[in-house]
Every structure is written in C-alpha cells, then in structure tokens.
Fold this protein.
Amino acid sequence: MVYIAGKPIIGHILDRMVDLEPEEIILVIGYRKEQVMSYVDKHYRDIFNIQYVDQKERLGLGHSIYLTRELVGDLDIMIALGDMIFKSGYLDFYELHAENGHCAGSIGVKEVNEPQKYGIVELEPETSWIKQLEEKPEHPASNLGIAGVYFIRDTPVLFDVLDWMLENNINTRGEYQLTDALQEMIRRGSRFKTFTVSSWYDCGHAESLLATNRVLLDEKEDVDGVYEVVDSVVIHPVAIGENVRIVNSVIGPYASIASDTVVENSIISNSVIGSRTHISKVNLQSSIIGDAANLVGKHNLLNIGDSSSIEF
C-alpha cells in the first residue's frame, strides 16, 4: 500500500493485469488487510473478479500460495509478487510463457548484479530447461535472478509439494519458500523454462523503491488529486493525493505525497510520504515516511515506519 507515483504499489500491479483479462484474481492479504481490501474493492472490483485469502501468519511466499489451493484447484495460475512492478504488462509475460510450449511452467528471470540477494535460476547446459533453483545462495551458480512472476501449469503437483513441505516442516528461518517448492517439483520430474523480464522495479528495499518512484513519475501524466498549495512551489514530476495541504514549502521534483497529509515550512524531494502524515520544518531528501507519522525538526535522510512520531 506504499503510495508511489499517484497510487499504492498494488494499484500499479493491477493496472498491468488489465490486458491479461484473468478469469479471477486471488489476493493473499494479512498485514493491514482492511486497507488493502478497501482500496482494491473501490478501484478494481468493477474490472476484475477478485477473491481474498487471509494469511494470518506470515510464513513465507510458499505458504501464501498454499492457502489459495481450494480456490485454484487444478487450474493454470500466474503468481505475481506484491513488491515488484514491471514496465511491461503481464500479457507480454503470458505470451512469452506460451512461446515456451509444453512445460510445467515458466519463470521470469533477469540478470542481477548481486545474485546472493535473490532466488537464482541455473539452466541446463545448452538447453532452455531449468536445472536448479535456489533462494539467496551464498555461492550463486548463475546471475539469473527470479523476477517475481511465475506461470504454473502443474498446479496439483505444486500444491502436493507445498502440503508435503508444511507437513514435514521444511522451511528456511520459519518461512516456506516458493523457490524450494519449485525445486522439489523439478526433483520429482516437473520441467520448467524461463522467459526474460527486461524492466523490473523492485519495491522491496528503500533505495529501489525511491528509484521506482522516480521512473514512474517520469512516465505519468501530471494529473493529481485535489490539494491545497499556499505560498509554496511544486516542481514536477510529483504525485500529490487528495486533501493534501502544502504551506510555505517546496515540493519536488520526484516527491509522492499520499492523501490527507499536511506539509508546512519544508522542502521535500525524491521522497515518498504516506497518508495522514504531518511534516513541519524539515528538509527531506531520499526519504520514506509511512502513514500517520508526525515529523517536526530537521533531517536530510530518514526512513520511518507507520504511525511514528519523531521530533528533532
């Protein structure tokens, strides 16, 4: 639900699924689920057939997929992560998956500079088949990082493997990894291929989130919410939500400010600001501020969570 370039991340993801025309979208929710459901129902209920599954404990991506088993059954699925935004739409990825022909599924990959931070794919020599998958390996066998989008045809096998993992408590630091499940499918005989993802925006880290915000602001039209500007300067590109009040401040470039926030006597650039937040007398650069935060004072670089109150 982090607000970048005019809408929460989930909005950017769902926008890119419109052309795909999925039969159904299943959203696995947990933390702040009411906020997610409210936003999605308001903006996307008329576009998609949407179902929600509540993950009461955060036990990993594999566990979250396992919870959808009764809704999915034996249908083909696409899995998309909630912290990845792609410049391309998911229809482009589906077409690349279709070109792979008969296989258990296809996994989006991209060459990465620090493979030890990602799930890594190793291909069989001189073929397009996946030999091995490993989550955040200490000694990566390749630099092909898993890009956060998967197409699975052998869904009964996937759910059987996930069930086996949960029954036998096969996890990494308390999380059941989808990468481990796919590797077990390969061990049992499933055959996977890859497709290349060219433009991949990782929103899972502060630096990459701000970089994504800049890219999307450069691409968007300057159509923002209804906000109030008093004795202030707004330098585009920016994204400013509904009912934002800006007083005696300089905003931008590359600032995203969510709804119902007040900014006074401040300078904000290259930053992401949450909703219902009050900011006064600060110079914020390359910063991320969560929802319902209260920030008073002076600072140049800051990342604080939701509902925080800091005074300098």
Notes: The mean pLDDT is 91.
